[in-house]
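Let's practice the habit of predicting before peeking. Look at the sequence and jot down your guess about where helices and strands might fall. Then scroll down.
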Amino acid sequence: MSTSLATVPRNEIVTSSPVSYWVMPDDLRQALEIATIISKTDLCPKDFRGKPEAVFVAAKFGQELGLSIMQSLSGVAVINGHPGVYGDTMLAVIQCHPDYELHEEFWEGEGDQYKAVHIIKRRGQKPHRSEFSVADAKVAHLWDERPKIGTQSGEILNPSPWHRYPKRMLMFRARGFGLRDKFADALRGMKSIEELSDYPNTIEGSLESNGPESGTSPTTTTVSDPVITPAQSAELSTILKASGYTDKAAREEVRAWLKTTFGCETTAQIKTSQLPTATEWAKKPRPTSQAKSADAPKSEAKADQKKADPPAAVSPYASHFEMLGWTEGEQADYLSKMFKFTEAQIRADLNRLIEERDARER
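Done guessing? Here is the structure:
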């Protein structure tokens, strides 16, 4: 039986075969040994380097789809806590399915009716057509025509894939819907990474109520009030510093005010709807009665300065930024680009940047 180079059939157990297909062995010790070896090489994708457990789990997810170990590492990722596969890998999986017969992809229409069309045919069934148009992308708040976006450090070119590669993104949506409709047994419930990346990123990485495909009308879908972004938290902390809230006593005042007004203890926990109120309060100068007396002996002032705690972290990534040596502008620019990602994903990316810097310096 001939085997496609795209994937490893699920029913093929690879042992001593001369064919160089690798699937993760069932023996846990052997599997972790292989994962450890792979995680230490430069050929391993950056997100998996030094993380044998992540290599193991990704390979197991890929094995469910018929992918080899290395194909799994390049084709599987976790977005907002959900595993997914890249759109091209998804199509490769389906093309190796015994019931796959043919597929066709093209674009048609104009203006808002311009759309990507995907046609897939499963053996013994009629061809299935799925579409995704510019109008669909606008309804889902995905379409992005802005050439530049503003950040705290100025304007930058819009990095959104919906701005840079709109035709490709339309096709990924049409393809993903079509393949999931007709080959759910092969995909085992996995969505494309391109689709998962576009889902709203709330505190839990998902909507509290029904999702975009549940059939519920958008007017009845409610989203929780998310906390402000790390960039907004950093900006608020900068305003507080400018207003005189810099020493330990001042930070205690801010903490008490946050707890009384919003029921939280740090600026990072403020909800988006509460930000205008917090900003207005932060801009008010700190009462002079809280400041140290100018007549205090210099020795006492120096002693107080030595006892004062270091300034509070303005974001949950302060230690990472300090290790990277980034300016406030560089921090804000980075956070503005990462606004779609969860805190865990941002920390992982910062750890990667630190490791790359350390490797360059060695």
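How did you do? The first strand starts at residue 76 and ends at 79.
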